[in-house]
Design a protein that fits this description.
Structural class: alpha+beta
Shape: globular
Radius of gyration: 14 Å
Number of strands: 2
Length: 96
């Protein structure tokens, strides 16, 4: 199963936040990043070993590099999304 679009969202957020920090001279702080793809969150934010044979390893490694160079402390939260089972659209977490 590919979660490349979620990984791209994580990567682009890391890049944009890092650029904002550099531009405005922000040296520390924290961000909570919510995503409905638990697998994508784990692949980027947990220090599990990644192999070049892994699906989407290129974007995972790029996101991890951006995370390592970020002056920000990142906190993650898994939220239910519109495709999760037994999840009525009105019950979706606002973070989604």
């Amino acid at each position: 199963m590919s979660y490349r679009s979620e990984l791209a969202g994580i990567y682009s957020t890391l890049i944009v936040v890092n650029h904002i920090c550099r531009y405005f001279g922000i040296a520390d702080g924290s961000i909570e990043f919510a995503c409905d793809s638990l697998s994508a969150l784990q692949k980027v934010f947990l220090s599990t070993k990644i192999s070049s044979d892994d699906l989407d390893c290129d974007i995972i490694m790029a996101a991890r590099k951006a995370l390592l160079t970020s002056p920000i402390t990142w906190h993650t939260r898994h939220v239910l999304g519109h495709q999760d089972k037994n999840n009525h659209i009105n019950w979706i977490d606002g973070g989604a």
